[in-house]
Write a structure and sequence with these properties.
Layout lengths: L2 E4 L9 E7 L5 E4 L14 E3 L6 E3 H6 L3 E4 L1
Parallel strand pairs: 1-3, 1-6
Antiparallel strand pairs: 2-3, 2-4, 2-5
């Protein structure tokens, strides 16, 4: 099971955001839609976790088996 850092204060009303991975530090994040920088290393080298589904909710991540770490 992988951990996902969830930036709760930046998510939309349904607790959703962009689900991305930083290609520099490897961090998985659910962040504000349109965010451009990694919350850990501040790199702008982000890629979608899944190109076919770019926006996820906390509930969807939990159902997929990810461990949620709220930031």
């Amino acid at each position: 099971m992988e951990e996902v850092k969830v930036y709760v204060d930046c998510l939309n009303d349904n607790h959703g955001g962009d689900f991305v991975k930083c290609t520099d530090c490897g961090e998985l994040m659910l962040m504000q839609i349109g965010g451009t920088a990694c919350g850990e290393c501040e790199s702008e080298n982000l890629q979608w976790y899944d190109d076919d589904k770019t926006e996820w909710t906390i509930e969807e991540l939990e159902k997929a088996g990810f461990i949620i770490v709220e930031k």
